Amino acid sequence: MKHKLQALYGLKWDPFSREAPPEGLYRSAVAETLCWRTEHVLLGEGGFGSVIGEPGEGKSACLRLLVQHLERGSSAKVVALEHASGSVSSFYRELGELFEVELSPRNRWGGFKALREKWREHMEKTLLRPVLLVDEAQEMNLKVLTELRLLSSTRFDSRVILSVVLAGDRRLEEKLRLEELTALGSRLRVRLSLEPMDKETMLALLDHRLKAAGGSALGTPGLKTTLVERSAGNPRAMLAIGQELLMHAVQRELKQLDEKLYLEVFGGNERGGTKPKGKRS
φ, ψ for residue 69 (rounded to 5)? Predict the structure, then answer.
């Protein structure tokens, strides 16, 4: 497939793929704010941050951009929790692997102390807090979130030794309002809420993806406008439509993606795409 994209359109990679390389990620205003506040607030002072948004609005992309930003501009250690819905025991096991600390499932107190000591050592060497990123954080159970709060500070809660960024949908916002998590909610230093993107930002994102992949002329201006208008401000939806069109174009060896192709594939209904009605020359 990569060879086809290169041969037909001169593309280095699929510009609509969710696995686009770092240079393909568009730094929206919200992503810029997250990077700046994490660097200037959470790294130096610690605490929790949250990024809330509906599926497809760019939470995961924001986290990827944040990792890229922090690893390029500082000596902070940045890790991502993969199993957000795990138990307290699996939570500790994963933290041990992420921070290279040997933990025993039978000795949670020992693991608690070892992790905190690791974080203190990092702070002494770099003057920065390590950063833990959690995607799909709405799936975390209350006990794990409480344990994370307790882990992250020392000296009667006067010294924060870990920075945490939680990203999730609106259920995370509701969870953080629960009485059981009042103490954690009070530690939120950074709060960002994603909203459907406006058309100008969506078009800028699309243009950035195409240019980064080496295919600025892949889609006609009319098609770009159609993709933006049909996606209701949701980047994931726009990229999914674009990828479907690209697959049809490659199969039929079309020279460019345009509005005619869109109508042939979707018939005006991007949610229920149909097979192409005919082959174009």
Answer: -65, -45
Q: What is the pLDDT of residues 88-137, one digit of tens each?
A: 999 999 999 999 998 876 788 888 999 999 999 999 999 999 999 999 99
Query: Structure tokens of 189?
Result: 């230093």
How far is residue 200's CA from residue 118's CA, in Å, rounded to a whole number?
45
The three-class DSSP label of residue 219 is strand
Cα separation, 5 vs 102, whole angstroms:
46
CA distance 233 to 227: 10
Q: Could you tell me the CA-to-CA distances from 159 to 47, 106, 111, 116, 162 in Å, in that order? A: 10, 28, 19, 11, 9
Please list, in sequence order, all residues whose beta carbon lies within 8 angstroms of the beta carbon of residue 157, skipping any fewer than 6 positions away: none
Task: Provide the whole-model pTM.
Answer: 0.89
Distance CA 63, CA 206 (A): 19
